[in-house]
Design brief:
With 320 residues, the protein is of the alpha+beta class. The protein has 3 domains: 91 residues, Pseudouridine synthase; 133 residues, Pseudouridine synthase; 73 residues, Roll (Archaeosine Trna-guanine Transglycosylase, Chain: A, domain 4). The protein contains 9 helices and 19 strands. Strands 1, 2, 3, 4, 7, 10, 11, 12, 13 and 14 form a 10-stranded mixed β-sheet that branches. Strands 15-17-18-19-16 form a 5-stranded mixed β-sheet. The termini are close together.
């Protein structure tokens, strides 16, 4: 018999408005402690300098983290022109200077080259591993290493404001694995100058937006109270846009045991309508969220050869 995991069987999402100066790992630990949750994780790191939406999964919600990670992120940030830093943000030492300050026209002209599918070299101070060691640890130790360019998707980039010649405010919507610090570094170089991120705030990650986020201090002030539980969102909140089906009877039993079930004609029709597909064969490989008639999560499954094959089964028992 396996060891019982410490903590309470708390399941759901907390959308935290992460404060500046706190790491994502520290924020997760504090939220986990507040809810006395057995396990916790987050859907995308925010640097200590950054603020905003940090989606934290508790309990069985951790099984839906990849779906939030794959979702679009929206950032608002301030660029300081003329100074490149070792970390590409305001926390690093200045390593290069430039007297060039780009005009609004020059910025608008260059933005198209930095949207869409682009190649990006991650910042030296990042969590990417090089021969098993985090890049930021190598950088702090002054060791030489090379990070290879990676493809990333910048869905949109907008110049929001230019408060003075030294600063510009942007908003970027991007995909998984995009580094705003790297975007600013490369964008400045294309404009013939240097720059770094002076301020960064995440406004959205996947289905989670800042209007439902709660500050860490405010959440901790609620303590272990019913008011704190009001900020625990259902697991299904993370699965916005994924078609859902209700299951009952023997299908429910089979799925909870990790076994596939037959995909019946009414279910095929429902999925086809949800996906606006003309024929059921187009559903091959589709991910489906399965729940009880009361909406309790059961499993995430894939459509394959006329079956629903579960690849994530939710287990709400107290034992782990």
């Amino acid at each position: 018999m396996g060891r019982r995991r410490k903590g309470s069987p708390v399941h759901g999402w907390v959308v935290l408005d992460k404060p500046q100066g706190v790491t994502s790992t520290q924020a997760v630990a504090r939220v986990r402690k507040l809810f006395d949750a057995q396990k916790a994780g987050h859907a995308g790191t925010l640097d200590p300098l950054a603020t905003g939406v940090l989606a934290i999964a508790l309990g069985e919600a951790t099984k839906t983290v990849p779906f939030v990670m794959e979702g679009e992120k929206l950032y608002r940030f301030t660029v300081r022109w003329g100074y490149a830093t070792a970390t590409d943000d305001a926390q690093g030492d200045v390593v290069e200077r430039s007297d060039v300050r780009p005009t609004e026209a020059a910025i608008h002209a260059e933005i198209p080259a930095f949207t869409g599918e682009i190649m990006q070299v991650p910042p030296a101070f990042s969590a990417i591993k090089v021969a098993g060691v985090r890049a930021y640890d190598l950088a702090r130790n002054g060791e030489a290493f090379t990070l290879e360019p990676r493809p990333t998707s910048i869905h949109s980039a907008t110049l929001v404001d230019m408060p003075d010649s030294d600063h510009a405010v942007f908003e970027i919507a991007c995909g998984k694995g995009s580094y705003i610090r790297a975007w600013v570094r490369d964008f400045a170089e294309a404009l013939g100058t240097r720059a770094h991120v002076a301020m960064l705030r995440r406004l959205r990650t996947g289905a989670f937006t800042e209007d439902v986020a709660i500050g860490l201090e405010k959440l901790e002030a609620l303590g272990h109270s019913p008011a704190a539980l009001e900020h625990l969102l259902p697991i299904a909140t993370a699965l916005d846009g994924i078609p859902a089906l209700a299951v009952t009877g023997s299908d429910l039993v089979r799925l909870r045991s990790g076994n596939p079930i037959m995909l019946r004609a009414p279910q095929l029709q429902r999925l086809a309508e949800d996906r606006e597909f003309a024929v059921a064969t187009d559903l091959q490989g589709l991910t489906v969220f399965l729940s009880t008639a009361r909406g309790e999560p059961v499993a995430l499954a894939e459509v394959a050869h006329g079956e629903l094959r579960p690849f994530r089964v939710f287990n709400f028992s107290q034992a782990s």
